[in-house]
Input
Amino acid sequence: MSHRDDWIERVRQRWLPAIHLFLQRLHPRLYATAEMPEFQRVGTCEHHIEQVEYFLYQRYGFNRNWLASLKYRLDDVSGGSWGYRDSLFADYQLHVILFVNDDSARRTDVYAHLEYNALRHPVRHYATERLSAEGGVEAARALIPWFGESEADLADGLDAYAEEVFD
Output
């Protein structure tokens, strides 16, 4: 799904909280929403969220991550969930979550983590095996030029980088 498919975010914002309540009644470890921890923050960019989504999709090869749980912080829900993978069924994905900045709608707060690809490893992904906030933040900084320098070396692909992070 591309940057033009904003309708999916409205569907996610509408239905995932209700699905979450249902899942929690079945078992407390089941979820469809999750709090966005501050330590996954990549930074704030001086672009409107729609511009950021355009760049993620058109320039950097990200796709909408519509299967992801809906992330929230305080009284705010995410405005976009994006995934970057070496290929559709790669082992790992970089999950980037976007929020409209609290101070200005013209700015976007970006969060990220590195994790198992939900399409290849759905159970491991859902159980949050091998999730790295630090690895995700560094990978996002390496891929998205608005955030300065990064220690992440993605020359051999995201999967190779992830294996280094999780070793």
About this structure: The chain has a mean pLDDT of 86. The longest strand covers residues 92-100.
